[in-house]
Amino acid sequence: MKIPFTADEFLGIFELYNRAVWPSQLILYALAVTALVALYRNDKRGRQVLFAVLSLLWAWMGAVYHITYFSTINKAAYGFGLLFIVQSMVFVYAGIIQDKWSFDIRFDIYTIMGLIFVAYALIGYPLVGILQGHTYPKSPTFGVPCPTTIFTFGVLLFSTHRISFFVLLIPFLWSIVGFSAAFQLSIYEDIGLVISGIVSTLILTLLKKRSPEAVVQ
Fold first, then answer.
1. CA gap 43, 47 in Å, rounded
2. For 142, which of 33, 136, 160, 178 is 20 to 30 Å away at the CA?
3. So what's the pLDDT on residue 216?
4. Are 91 and 54 in contact, with CB atoms under 8 Å apart?
5. What is residue 206's predicted lDDT score, i.e. its pLDDT?
6. Beta bridge partners of 144
7. d(Cα 167, Cα 177) in Å, to the nearest integer?
8. In the Cβ-directed half-sphere of 17, how many Cα atoms lie within 13 Å?
9. What is the CA radius of gyration of the chain?
10. At residue 5, what are phi and psi to the nearest 5 degrees?
11. How far apart are CA 68 and CA 91, in angstroms?
């Protein structure tokens, strides 16, 4: 499917966004670090902080990036923005209201994959972008959908339970839609988006986890 904008227009939206929201990018990175610390604590307060951060990130992507900026070159962004806001509410319901989650950091495939995706979202993604010539401010920074979705998948891989596909549906769909569009525009750092989406969704919903008898709804 042909996308309704050019690569220059796409990168121009990042420039407009980055200049307008500065220094929010630093705050968003700080929130990511806060989420990781909260995950490590793995008590009720820590889980509340973790999912509050995830909820805030998805609401930000929906309202600020998609609806406010991306919609100027792609009207489908209004629909994307609405779905991202819905995902924000999903994290509030599943992670804070239900509070059935548990996380663990141990030397196994789930932790390794989670660490890889988190590190790629926060460090690897911008470095690969620089190698592709996508330098700030014409670059996707943390807080826009693709790197932040990768970060979300990485964090959820630390869950000790299998996770209902209901929780992962919107991030998974974005990993496919976002990658297909970005790949047409040679945003090759987004290869990590589709990899994280497919791998994480398979692990979290289909494969046996550390506590296979429990499924987080």
1. 6
2. 160
3. 54
4. yes
5. 80
6. 142
7. 17
8. 29
9. 16
10. -155, 160
11. 22
Give the model confidence (pLDDT) of 4-62 as tens digits: 888 899 999 999 999 999 999 999 999 999 999 999 887 889 999 999 999 999 999 99
- Check: pTM over 0.85? Answer yes or no: yes
**Cβ-proximal residues to 102 (8 Å cutoff; 6+ apart), any chain:** 42, 159, 160, 161, 211
Determine, yes or no, domain membership for 200: yes
Peptide bond connecting 23 to the previous residue in cis, omega within 30 degrees of 0: yes
The span from the CA of 29 to the CA of 122, in Å, is 8
Structural domain includes residue 2: no
Structure tokens at 91: 């994290």
Q: Which two tokens stand for residue 127?
A: 């470095």
Rounded Cα distance, 40 and 61, in Å = 25
Tell me which residue of 205, 113, 114 sits closest to 162, measured CA to CA: 205
Judge whether 1 lies within some domain.
no
In sign, the C-alpha dihedral spanning 210, 214, 215, 217 is negative
Residue 15 domain flag = yes
> Which stretches of the chain drop beneath a pLDDT of 50?
212-214
- In which domain, by residue range, is 73 found? 7-216
* Count of structural domains, the chain: 1
Q: What is the pLDDT of residue 21?
A: 98
Residue 59 Cα to chain centre, angstroms: 11
Long-range contacts of 127-131 (CB under 8 A, 24+ apart): 128/188, 128/189, 128/192, 129/187, 129/189
Q: What is the pLDDT of residue 197?
A: 96
